[in-house]
């Protein structure tokens, strides 16, 4: 069985997908981390962000590897562990820009389908149910109010020692969602056969239980 979890920034996809994967003993694949890895490399190599050919060329000649670490995942770019470097607000914004390029998405699609080929995966992202795994057995569209998503991100970033505030984060999340929803190539949208789960006011455990129930019904 394959499970696709899509939704906007900060809806809790990664945390929830990781826990669902753990409970089912499935492989967890965070596709956002792949766009983040490319964004990090663009910044690090000073590739002009508005040059689609250069950005997609950089991806073509590099290697992204996701490695399982207990219930979570580490991210490698050409063998370098960049797991902790890809979670900054700057990388988030750059990730949604590189993700708008069709020539980048085409390459990511091939990599992601290859990773899911063995089955029994929980994959999270923006276009998993609509493009990457259109035949997934369970499709979830996870969302929450913009305010709540910004509050969750704030807690996460403050805990990691980043300096930021709620208003800045809310604006950044809104900007990223707009770019993700309005792009031409595989925009963020709920698949017709996806189940909508609004997590506003729900705890992580409650969301996980809800998704496991949905999986049971489809299993
Ligand atoms: O999920 P996360 O916030 O880590 O994703 C970072 C960015 O990568 C998103 O804002 C989105 O632009 C892009 N993304 C995507 N398709 C996916 C996963 C992520 O376009 N399947």
UniProtKB/TrEMBL annotation:
<feature type="coiled-coil region">
    <location>
        <begin position="164"/>
        <end position="191"/>
    </location>
</feature>
<keyword id="KW-0547">Nucleotide-binding</keyword>
<dbReference type="InterPro" id="IPR011994">
    <property type="entry name" value="Cytidylate_kinase_dom"/>
</dbReference>
<dbReference type="InterPro" id="IPR003136">
    <property type="entry name" value="Cytidylate_kin"/>
</dbReference>
<dbReference type="GO" id="GO:0015949">
    <property type="term" value="P:nucleobase-containing small molecule interconversion"/>
</dbReference>
<dbReference type="GO" id="GO:0006220">
    <property type="term" value="P:pyrimidine nucleotide metabolic process"/>
</dbReference>
<dbReference type="GO" id="GO:0005829">
    <property type="term" value="C:cytosol"/>
</dbReference>
<feature type="domain" description="Cytidylate kinase">
    <location>
        <begin position="3"/>
        <end position="216"/>
    </location>
</feature>
<keyword id="KW-0808">Transferase</keyword>
<comment type="similarity">
    <text>Belongs to the cytidylate kinase family. Type 1 subfamily.</text>
</comment>
<dbReference type="GO" id="GO:0005524">
    <property type="term" value="F:ATP binding"/>
</dbReference>
<keyword id="KW-0067">ATP-binding</keyword>
<dbReference type="GO" id="GO:0036431">
    <property type="term" value="F:dCMP kinase activity"/>
</dbReference>
<keyword id="KW-0418">Kinase</keyword>
<feature type="binding site">
    <location>
        <begin position="7"/>
        <end position="15"/>
    </location>
    <ligand>
        <name>ATP</name>
    </ligand>
</feature>
<keyword id="KW-0175">Coiled coil</keyword>
<dbReference type="Pfam" id="PF02224">
    <property type="entry name" value="Cytidylate_kin"/>
</dbReference>
<protein>
    <recommendedName>
        <fullName>Cytidylate kinase</fullName>
        <ecNumber>2.7.4.25</ecNumber>
    </recommendedName>
</protein>
<keyword id="KW-0963">Cytoplasm</keyword>
<dbReference type="InterPro" id="IPR027417">
    <property type="entry name" value="P-loop_NTPase"/>
</dbReference>
């Amino acid at each position: 069985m394959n499970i696709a979890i899509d939704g906007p920034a900060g809806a809790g996809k990664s945390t929830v997908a990781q826990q669902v994967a753990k409970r089912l003993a499935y492989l967890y694949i965070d596709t956002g981390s792949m766009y983040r890895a490319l964004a990090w490399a663009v910044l690090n190599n000073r590739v002009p962000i508005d040059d689609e050919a250069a950005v997609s060329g950089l991806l073509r000649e590099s290697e992204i590897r996701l490695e399982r670490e207990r219930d979570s995942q580490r991210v490698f770019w050409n063998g370098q562990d960049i797991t902790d470097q890809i979670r900054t607000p700057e990388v988030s914004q750059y990730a949604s820009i590189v993700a708008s390029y069709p020539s980048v998405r085409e390459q990511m699609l091939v990599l992601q389908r290859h990773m899911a080929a063995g089955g029994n995966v929980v994959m999270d992202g923006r276009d998993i149910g609509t493009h990457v795994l259109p035949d997934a057995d369970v499709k979830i569209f996870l969302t929450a109010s913009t305010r709540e998503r910004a509050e969750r991100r704030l807690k996460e970033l403050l805990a990691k020692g980043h300096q930021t505030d709620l208003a800045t984060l809310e604006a950044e999340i809104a900007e990223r969602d707009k770019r993700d929803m309005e792009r031409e190539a595989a925009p963020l949208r709920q698949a017709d056969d996806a189940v909508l789960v609004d997590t506003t006011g729900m705890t992580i455990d409650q969301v996980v239980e809800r998704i496991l129930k949905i999986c049971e019904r489809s299993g």
